[in-house]
Amino acid sequence: LLRVNTPDNYTVTTSATQTLQTLIDQYQLENVTHTVVSANTEYEGLMHYGHSLEQTILALSTHKRSFLQRLLRPNEEEKLIVSSAHPVWTFGG
Q1: What pLDDT sits at residue 32?
Q2: Do residues 43 and 10 lie in contact, with contact meaning Cβ atoms separated by under 8 Å?
Q3: Strand partners, 92
Q4: Whose CA is closest to 64, among 55, 56, 75?
Q5: What is the reported pLDDT for 73?
Q6: Which of 27, 54, 58, 69 is the most exposed place for a label (fewest CB within 10 A)?
Q7: How far is CA 62 from each of CA 12, 16, 25, 70, rounded to the nearest angstrom?
């Protein structure tokens, strides 16, 4: 599990780590690690994290957005999919 801390949406690392561990415990996930990354944007954090791994696929939860929301704010998920060195699986979240 990955938490990307950005200047606009910052959480203290210990709090973010506790939240991720709570999710792991709540959903009884196995063979899962959690990481907190700080970056200027979520996209930068995802790319940095993705390049640091030897994974074969990234799984990315996406938010459903209206046409107006997509028009006003660039789609970070699409930028990640296009520029990732690994395949990206997206699912609604």
Answers
A1: 82
A2: no
A3: 62
A4: 75
A5: 62
A6: 54
A7: 23, 20, 22, 12
50 neighbors 83 (Cβ within 8 angstroms):
no
Give me 31's structure tokens. Answer: 């063979």
Q: Residue 89 — φ and ψ, nearest 5°?
A: -100, 125
Q: Which pLDDT does position 11 carry in this prediction? A: 84
- DSSP for 3-36 reads EEEBTTB---HHHHHHHHHHHHHHTT--S---EE
Q: Per residue in 62-81, pLDDT tens? A: 656 555 655 566 566 667 66
- Return d(Cα 62, Cα 75) in angstroms, integer: 10
Nearest residue to 61 via CA among 28, 88, 29, 21: 88
DSSP 40: S
Question: What are the C-alpha distances in Å from 10 to residues 5, 40, 76, 85?
Answer: 5, 10, 18, 27
